[in-house]
Amino acid sequence: MLRLQNVESGYGESRVLRGVNLEVLPGQVTCLMGRNGVGKTTLMKTLMGLLRTRAGSVHWNGRELASLEPAKRAKAGIGYVPQGREIFPQLTVKENLLLGLEMSMSGVRTFPEDVLEMFPVLASMYGRQGGDLSGGQQQQLAFARALASRPGLLLLDEPTEGIQPSIVEDIRRVILKLKAQGTISILLVEQSIDFVRSAADYIYVMDKGVMTLQGTPHDLDMSQFEYHLSV
Ligand SMILES: Nc1ncnc2c1ncn2[C@@H]1O[C@H](COP(=O)(O)OP(=O)(O)OP(=O)(O)O)[C@@H](O)[C@H]1O
C-alpha cells in the first residue's frame, strides 16, 4: 500500500503541495481530480522522485521512499506514465516497449504477451516508429511500456487527455481489466467525472496543494464534485 503523510513539495521558492495525505490500497484504482494547476502532476512527480519531498513521508509497502532517486523507485515497483506520453519517437514500438523491461525487477527480457494482448493496436504496429503513431496510440504505448516492468503501483497522469473517444474506451477497458485482476494498485489523475465514477474505488479531489474532498464513488454526489471542480 502507498501512504503519503503531510507531503510538501514544489518548484524553487514556490510551495505547491502543502501537506498532502493520500492512501492507495492494494489492487485498487484511486483517482485524483482537481482543477488545472492545483498540483496533481506535481504530486505524481514527487511520488516518482522527480521532485524532492521537502517534508512528510512517502511509504510504499512499508518502505520510506521520500529520499530515493527515481530509478530506485522504479525498481521498488512504481511505474509512471507521465502527462504527454514521452515515448521515444525515433525508436520503434518494439524498442519502446523493450525499454520498459529495463526497469523490470523480474529480469525478463522478452515483452510480456499478456500486456501486448491488452493493446492489440500495438501488436499490429510493432515495427513502426513511435513518432508515426497517433496521440492515442502513443498513449497506449506509454501505458504498455509502464506495465511491462510489472509495477506494483502504476501512476497514470491524465491518460485520456486529448484522446479520441474510441481510444479513451480502450484505456478504460485496460484499467478495468487490471482492476479485476487485482494485482496492481493504480493512482489515476483524471478530469472526466464519468470516467472516474466508472473506474475508481476511491476518489480524492485536490485544491491548491491539499486534498479537499475524498470518498468512494458511492459516497460522493455530483453536486460535491461540481462545486469542487468548477472554475
Ligand atoms: N516546472 C515548473 N516550475 C515552476 N512552477 C511550476 C512548474 N510546473 C508546474 N508549476 C506550477 O505548479 C502548480 C501546480 O502545477 P501542476 O502541473 O502540478 O498542476 P496540475 O493540477 O497537474 O494541473 P493540470 O491539470 O493543468 O495538469 C501550478 O501553479 C504551476 O504553474
UniProtKB/TrEMBL annotation:
Keywords: Amino-acid transport, ATP-binding, Nucleotide-binding, Transport. InterPro entries: AAA+_ATPase, ABC_transporter-like_ATP-bd, ABC_transptr_urea_ATP-bd_UrtE, BCAA_Transport_ATP-bd_LivF, P-loop_NTPase. Pfam families: ABC_tran. It comes from the Bacteria. The keyword Cytoplasm does not apply. The keyword Cell division does not apply. GO terms for molecular function: ATP binding. Residues 2-231 form the ABC transporter domain. SMART domains: AAA. Belongs to the ABC transporter superfamily. This is ABC transporter ATP-binding protein.
